[in-house]
Structure formats: structure tokens, C-alpha cells
Amino acid sequence: MKALVKTEAGPGLSLTEVPDPVPGPDEVLLRVLRTGICGTDLHIDSWDEWSQRSIKPPLVLGHEFVGEVVAIGAAVSRVAVGDLVSGEGHLVCGRCRNCRAGRRHLCVNTRGLGVHRDGAFAEFVTLPEQNAWVHQHKVDLDVAAIFDPFGNAVHTALAFPVFGEDVLITGAGPIGLMAAAVARHAGARHVVITDVSEYRLELARKLGVDLALNVRGVSIAEVQKQLNMVEGFDIGMEMSGQPVALRDMITNMTHGGRIAMLGLPAAEFPVDWGNVVLKMLTIRGIYGREMFETWYSMSVLLQGGLDLTPVITHKFPAAEYEQAFATARGGQCGKVILDWEA
């Protein structure tokens, strides 16, 4: 089969022929239909310091995908040939304290599809049955391909109740955009999103946020005045990983405010912990998705009319992966999709 592979240490990827995968007893074999390009894939492509520490070539990339089940292992009982499946890319051990307690998203032995084991940038991929999310209702294939990052957005956006609250989101990348759409759909009073990319801020406006703010020209404090807010934001969602974004967020939170932090900083940075203490703020780290409560929420949100299609801005045949990766890296885009049927 054809697959997009990190064949050796160093920058670049190769679309090449590799052996077809064979499902184990508790695995399903999927014919891949669509995949989404993630920041992790860009890191592996460029072979940065994180990739050099974490990746062992040769490796098939990709963990955002949707596919059709074409074969099942002998022990598989709940997934059938013909099912349309999105994949949970965090592979957990099932034996640690958190797994045994039903908190699989906190597994200390988590391995990543397309990071520690061959992934979905290929014509076929195998996946443990327990990681297969079968779509029971009609769903757009491009949207189904990005259930993984959509799950990150939902996990963050629903970490704290947002109904009737004033919400600040820092970072209008694809996950930040999806979190804004979820917060709006879930009944937030005001949704404000910040970034420095006018392209992505315009996407946020299409998703119905109250204000999409370029922080190069306008401060968050000024926005509070525009919205007649007097005490600060109730809920914060930090999606950028930028130190200044978290600092500004803390400054503009109300007393007792709650922050869900998904953005991963590149390095340590100072925080005004005195402000956190005096305001009695709660800061919660978010990683991945709750397995599988978040997945239920995602499907229900889509069934309830949430529209994610504005977030998907570019789609390429898999053979045009170089252009697709360049587009994703350039930043003048939302979510970029690879079509493995084209």
C-alpha cells in the first residue's frame, strides 16, 4: 500500500510503498478515507528537537482520520466490516491505576498512533477495537477526519460550564476555532477569541464569535469595555501556548474565574502566581480527549446542529502532501485535509 513515511532521521517525508498492515485479534483494519494534518505531523516532517527525541524511523505518520472497516480480528465483537470509524489516537495500557479506574485519558503508559506506532497517513491502518469510534449517524467525511482535534476542543471548551458565561479564548488555530464554536453552541453569553492572524480571526467571525481580536492592535481590557463587562471573563481557554497569552488571560479573569489550558508552551515561563492566588483562579491542564465521554459529546453536538465546516479550509489528494504540508505550515488556513480516495 501507499503510505506517507518518515523513512530516516532528518527533515522530509516520502510517499512510498509499504507492506499492508494485518490486524491482530483485538484490532480492526480500516481503509483510510480522509486524514487531517496536525501540528505534530509538521514537527515530525521538519525533524525538530522534539521529533529527534520522540520518533524512531521508519514510521508512518498520521493520527487524525476516518476510515471504513474492511476486516476485523478474531476477538473483535462490537465493530463490524462496513462501519465508518474515526480513531482515538491515544493507545492506553488498560493496566495502570487510571485505566483500571475508568480514567483512560490519564493513562501513564499512553502511546500515540502515528508517533509511537504506524499511523493513518496510508491507504490502510490497524487500530485496537476499543479505540474505534463508530459513527452511528451521518457525518461529513472531512469532519469525521478531524474528530481527534475536535475532541481536544470539546474537552477544553466543556472543562467548565460555559452557559451564560463570558468566555475568552487565546489562539485561533483550528482547535481554538472549534472550541469557540462549541462555547457558542453551549450557550456562552460572550465569546471573545484572540490571535495575530487576520485570516484565522476572519474564520472565527464566520463561526459566530462576538469579537475576534487582533491583540497586536487592541487590548483585551478594551474589549471588556466594548461588551459592558465590569468584572472580567468567567472562563478562559488558552490554546496558543504563548506565555503572553496566558499572562493576559490571567490579568483579565474575574475573581473565581476558571482557565482550561490546552496550548503547550515550548519552554518554561514565569506566571504572576500572586494574581492567581488573590483572584482564586482555577487552572486546569487539558490533554487529548476523555475516553470516551468526549466522543459522545462530539457526536451529540454535531447531531444538534454544530457546524464545523468553516474550520476546514483546504483539501488535497494524498499525492499532493507536500503542498498540503506547506499550506498547513504557512498558517493562512484552518484545518487541512488529505483525501486518500482522490
Automatic annotation (TrEMBL):
Residues 10-338 form the Enoyl reductase (ER) domain. It comes from the Bacteria. Binds 2 Zn(2+) ions per subunit. Its main location: cytoplasm. The record marks 148 as: Important for catalytic activity for the proton relay mechanism but does not participate directly in the coordination of zinc atom. Its EC number is 1.1.1.103. One of its GO terms (biological process) is L-threonine catabolic process to glycine. Belongs to the zinc-containing alcohol dehydrogenase family. This is L-threonine 3-dehydrogenase.
